[in-house]
Amino acid sequence: MNTSSQTNASWQHDSIISNGVRLHYVTQGSGDLLLMLHGFPEFWYSWRHQIPEFAQDYQVVALDMRGYNDSDKPKDLAAYRMDELVRDISGVIRGLGYDRCILMGHDWGGAVAWNMAYTHPEQVDRLIVLNLPHPAKFTEGMTNPQQLLRSSYTFFFQLPWLPEAVLQLGDYQLIEEAFTRMAVNKSVFTTEDIKQYKNAVAKPGALTAMLNYYRNILQGGLLQKSWGKLYVPTLMIWGEEDTALGIELTYGTEAYVEDFTIRYIPHCSHWVQQEKPELVNQYVREFLTAKQGAV
């Protein structure tokens, strides 16, 4: 079910200046901060099934990452390096008046969340990552021919201007297919959902900004040489039929995370929180409740 039409009236749109850029976000609820970071080619809307669920107990903030939708879109390629993205998130937490947050990220948002937890563990009370492996496992995966094939689109994205031109063809047909072809249950993405994503991508400067995340992929953050152990309690949720990131990238994550929980969701694609929102919400709720009880 698409819950957006039922809950939009209670969602507040706002923006915040962090690390020199204006970042748009949607918020609902009150209490401890639950900060949600989306992936590519999404925006805050990818959390539409989670915002009302967790606003019952938290101040939920679903961010538009820099370069996306209604957030600022710096033109400099270096503006999309991982260290800048981490500074954005650190500043958002402080700017919203919090010392710490529960940080939840999917895809590229998950990559930023991993890096944020390593760089500023004092600001991350608990970490929740959906369908994005630990950076050390991602690096290992780049030596696997099968994973390299799955990730071949990232090499295409390194090219100047051509990826933008291809992605715009046919009214952003490839953006639509990124959701509808990858999803196991095609019906979870309505015509309105696809329209929302296309409209966000079509905003001036957005497409290049979004691709610039990939064009900085060799600048650290995802392919760093070594990673220590993370002591932030972490939940990983993984849709098992992710065609972009193989399930084997999750194996052995506990070697890098002291307090690690993983929940696999069968018959589910990369778009896990949109395709199986009830299960995702259940697993997140169980994780947060258990950690509260352990304090």
Give an account of the 3D structure.
The chain has one domain (4-294): Alpha/Beta hydrolase fold, catalytic domain (Rossmann fold, 3-Layer(aba) Sandwich). It is globular. It has helices at residues 4-7, 51-54, 82-95, 108-119, 135-141, 145-150, 152-156, 162-180, 191-201, 206-215, 272-275, 277-294, and strands at 12-18, 21-28, 33-37, 59-63, 101-106, 124-130, 234-239, 260-265. The chain is built from twelve helices and eight strands. Helices cover 39% and strands 17% of the residues. The chain has 295 residues and is of the alpha/beta class. Residues 1-6 have low confidence and may be disordered. Helix 4 links the parallel strand 5 (101-106) and strand 6. An eight-stranded mixed beta sheet has the order 1-2-4-3-5-6-7-8, sandwiched between helices.
